[in-house]
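Working notes for the structural subgroup meeting. M.R. asked for a predicted model of this chain before we commit to crystallization trials. I am recording the input and output together here so anyone reviewing the notebook later can reproduce the run.

Input as submitted:
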Amino acid sequence: MSTSLHLSEHAQNALLALDLARKEAVHFQYSHSTLFALSIDLQWVESLAQRPELAEKVEAFVSRFGRLQDHLGEKLIPRYAQLVGEQHRTQIDVLNFAERAGILCSADDFLAARKLRNVLVHEYMQDTQSFLEGLQLAQVASQMLFDVIKNTESELQRLGVLPCA
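Returned structure, recorded in token form:
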């Protein structure tokens, strides 16, 4: 039974987006936990050029970080917005809605994490200090991505679209 109004024609799309987000999050969590189980400092980052197995871990983390962000910002959050009757033209409008709805703690933090992804991709072999700082910030920003999924699940349960676990 639904406890709040929603547009049922958008329920399936929201559930599909949530399902994919959960699957991507499992792989991202693996990359996150294996990478940050290591002691990462400037010397470690500087050694990446000679340690392809570590560079591969970093690349998997960065790729999954970006892919999960893209999916949340371009699919999950907009589909949730549609479900509850919100239509937005720009990504910032969607993110601001998600913040007001309690799905996202901060639209600004989400946008900063998107910029962070660019640092991780472009500074990888150029500026080791910036790259190290980017990795450290990404470690913290990762929790925000997991929280968006958890918060969306809670909202879908509250709406009666997703059965309670």
